[in-house]
Design goal:
The strands form two sheets. Strands 1, 4, 6, 7, 8, 9, 10 and 14 form an eight-stranded antiparallel sheet that branches. Strands 2-3-15-5-11-12-13 form a seven-stranded antiparallel sheet. Strand 12 and strand 13 form a beta hairpin. The chain is built from six helices and 15 strands. The chain is an alpha+beta fold and 258 residues long. It folds into two domains: 80 residues, Up-down Bundle (Monooxygenase); 167 residues, SPRY domain (Jelly Rolls). One of its GO terms (cellular component) is synapse. This is F-box/SPRY domain-containing protein 1. InterPro entries: B30.2/SPRY, B30.2/SPRY_sf, ConA-like_dom_sf, F-box-like_dom_sf, F-box_dom, FBXO45-Fsn/SPSB_families, SPRY_dom, SPRY_FBXO45.
Length: 258
Amino acid sequence: MDDDLIEYAPNIPDNVLELIFSYLKLQDLRNCALVCKSWYRFLCDENNEVWRAQCLQKVPPEAFKNDLLSVVPSYKAKLRAFYHAWNPFDCSRHVYIKPNGFTLHRNPVAQSTDGSRGKIGFKHGRHAWEVRWEGPLGTVAVVGIATKDAAIQCHGYYALLGADDQSWGWNLVDNLLLHNGDAHGIYPLLNNAPKYKVGERIRVILDCDDNTLSFEKNYEFLGVAFTDLPDKIFYPTVAAVYGNTEISMVYLGPPLDG
């Protein structure tokens, strides 16, 4: 970057910054935030015109046609969620990602369990994302995390997510926690815990610092599901068996405590 521009950076008016930044790529914007306090302050406004333009350029217009992104109110958060959404190149061949970029559709293929992972994995920090199931659950509907080594498709109707030592899941059908091919108890730990109803919001909370995985349902914290997670890179993952079911996932960022 030009030294003269850096010298006068703190004195550049916001309307001029907006014009300059509108021509930059995301990586350039991240670098600009490190130049001075003035630029950092400007780019911390996640709803300014720079982030609005970036969001509308990158996020498919189909994503704005319903309330899917209402849980991430700022333009920058919506953009971040898009870069964390389902990976069209890391899912079962019986699954496709819809034009909105956030929703997977499982084709009606018999005797198959099919999954999908998010684009970005996590090894450090605390992360939360929301999962919403649309359509019948069938006999298996598992939400959780997996490494890149976990299988993403298998023959038959099977609790694929949680079937090996590379994945951890909560089967919404029978409220069982699954890992390494074993059931690890009923979840949540409530007497006659209600089953998941289609359309309810599941929030997955991964704490890579504390090595735990937890869940919320309709904004109610259900408790820690898994502890002592290994030091690996984890991806948001689901596994489904019912034909034409659809599952949306929106990355939220660090979870809000309390």
